[in-house]
Amino acid sequence: MTIRVPFVDLKLQHQPIQAQLQQAIQLVLEQGDFILGEALSGFEAAFAAASGAEYGIGVASGTDAIALGLQACHIGAGDEVILPVNTFVATLIGVLHAGAKPIFVDCDPQTALIDLEAAAKAITPQTKAIIPVHLYGQMVSPRDLLDFADTYKLLIFEDAAQAHLAERDGYRAGSVGIAAAFSFYPSKNLGAFGDGGMLVTGDPDVAQKMLRLRNYGASQKYVHIESGTNSRLDTLQAAVLHQKLPYLPQWNSDRLRIAQQYDIELATLRSAGIIPMENQSGTGHVYHLYVIKVDDSCLRERQQIQEQLTAAGIQTGIHYPIPCHLQPAFTNLGYQQGDFPQAEKLAKQILSLPMYPGLSNSQIQEVVVAINKSCCAFNLLPREVVQ
After folding, report:
1. How would you classify the pairing of strands 290-294 and 274-276?
2. Which long-range contacts (CB under 8 A, 24 or more apart) does 374-381 make?
3. Interatomic CA distance for residues 288 and 286, integer angstroms
């Protein structure tokens, strides 16, 4: 099968700056400072500043940014951490690796962001922090978060893995809480040539503890004052990311343009049960993903539409098909089917459409036409009897 519209096409992003990327890599090769090198410290400072934070500490992955970041914020055994159940499993794993107890809450079905009213009902005397996941590139409202944290005396630890330079309420992702975790997985808005992550913070004590934790707990070479690990963003990856960072605002703007075009093209399909996730951030949404819901009123199931798009050469994704509480590895947490109805329903409805800088209007139209054919061009029978 020929892929007509890929889900992600990184070549469009890399080809125009290939010479810069190669030069940056070559410089690291010549300097030989592959671990904690000059390019890393330069990128850490630049990305932290771009995110509205004072300090940036590069680590091996976004998961480590959460796990070590929580520890750097003195969150661990005996502490409860509230997080949305409809997040990538890395958020949960980060909490568990920090030694804390994850407390799941449901989501807002219109945005898929954490439901703060549900979060308020989940608070106990052991609750120490909340992790708002800025899902799909849209921030959880900083104004609401800050009010929430002030009311219940909790730390805000942002999961901004999908929200590089996202904005809302006058804040940028990474500047709201005590710290924020980012991922530089290749397909992220700012992606490396492999795994990578970063913690940003405005707290010097958190920053210093994070520097130790990522480097075997050492305050200086061979002096280990706490039990850390080996989790350092490679200098080569930092060099690549630093070269790409100046282009990120334009890439994000292009994602917004694409999302707005999708919104226009899909408007006539709302009555057919195709509903884009709601943007409550205006131009601050950076659209790491463009996600639609295949509503109950649609004549076709999500799987049927996805299969038809695949047959037409259009790649799609589902973010995420199984909520964390129903993952087999975490049944010991004590949750069960039906505990989080909004997230469970969304998991059966959501579909991520192709989204990347450079996606053309004609490709967007091709995607929408294929959806239209799939959900509208079959026999107009009730959904449950369509074969």
Report:
1. antiparallel
2. 374/300, 374/304, 374/305, 374/308, 374/309, 375/269, 375/272, 375/273, 375/274, 375/294, 375/298, 375/299, 375/300, 375/305, 376/269, 376/272, 376/299, 378/299, 378/300, 380/299, 381/299
3. 6
| Residue 139 token pair | 């921030």
d(CA 178, CA 4): 44
**Predicted TM-score (pTM) of this structure:** 0.96
Query: Which ranges constitute the DSSP H helices of the chain?
Result: 11-14, 18-31, 38-50, 62-72, 89-97, 116-121, 142-152, 204-213, 235-244, 248-266, 302-311, 341-349, 361-376
Residues 224-249 pLDDT 10s: 999 999 999 999 999 999 999 999 99
Rounded Cα distance, 214 and 57, in Å = 9
- Positions in the chain whose pLDDT score sits under 50: 378-387
CA 318 remoteness from chain centre: 13
Q: Do residues 320 and 86 touch, judged by C-beta distance below 8 A?
A: yes
| Cα distance between the two ends of the chain | 24
CA distance 184 to 195: 6
Q: What is the DSSP letter of 9?
A: -
